[in-house]
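Lab notes, practical 5.
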Amino acid sequence: MPEVTGVDRDYNLWVLLHQVSDIIFNAREAELQEHGLPATQAEVLFVIKAIGDKVTPAQISRMIFRRPHSVSGIIERMKKAGLVKKTKDLHRKNLVRVTITEKGQQAYKQALKRKSVQKIMSALSEAERQKLKSLLETLRNKGLKELGIDPKKAPPPKFV
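Output from the prediction step:
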């Protein structure tokens, strides 16, 4: 059997972390499908609610660590679905603000129900959850530093 190096172990851990993230995301996506709301759109609704009305696409992009063009596409689809409204900033004409519509408020309320995530996370005891949280925060902070982002200035990892 070939020897596993530290680099291979690190990569295998990353693959496992990525698989778990994708599995939970897919379970969440299936749950939200009942309401016709993709998980990425639910995430954007949470960010808008967390930051406040009239948030910019750039602020959303920074909060969810996605490229601005990806967030612009998500917002356009949400606008077409009637979940958000885009308006030009009155003071800075080149700036766009995003607000949640009434339909978006209803979708947000549906998205607050997160049974799939709770069901999966219930496999962990409270002590295990706290340990996982601590480990993930350590990895998040190290990753932010690798990207040249001060972890103290990074968006908080919670939206609700």
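Observations recorded by the TA: Residues 124-160 form one domain. The chain has a mean pLDDT of 91.
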